[in-house]
Write a structure and sequence with these properties.
alpha+beta; 5-stranded mixed β-sheet; 2 helices; 29% helix
Length: 101
């Protein structure tokens, strides 16, 4: 089964969090976190890497040992993307989004 590894902001640092695992590794830079997450994702039989920006949006993603992630046909909905980003951040314990204004 594919394992998804997320890089998320947490308390001013960057956490590498595997889905289904409660602990996370924390790094001072996003670059370090991404490098670690790639090693973890590539070490699985199949896996994917999802990098979130400070705003919670998915900044980049990659797959290893499985077909690439494809966007569904048709237009993307900004509301759906925002809702999915919020749910993902909540589940992974990422920092909340800063208030707009």
């Amino acid at each position: 089964m594919a394992k998804t590894v997320h890089v998320i902001p947490r308390n001013g640092q960057w956490a590498v969090k595997r889905e289904g695992v409660s602990s996370a590794c924390v790094f001072s830079t996003q670059r370090e976190a991404i490098a670690s997450a790639k090693v973890i994702a590539k070490g699985e039989t199949s896996g994917q890497l999802v990098v979130h920006g400070r705003n919670g949006q998915v900044r980049e993603h990659d797959t290893y040992g499985m077909p690439p992630i494809q966007d569904p046909p048709g237009k993307k909905s900004a509301k759906i993307e925002k809702a999915v980003a919020k749910i993902t951040r909540d589940r992974l314990g990422a920092d909340p989004l800063p208030p707009r204004g």
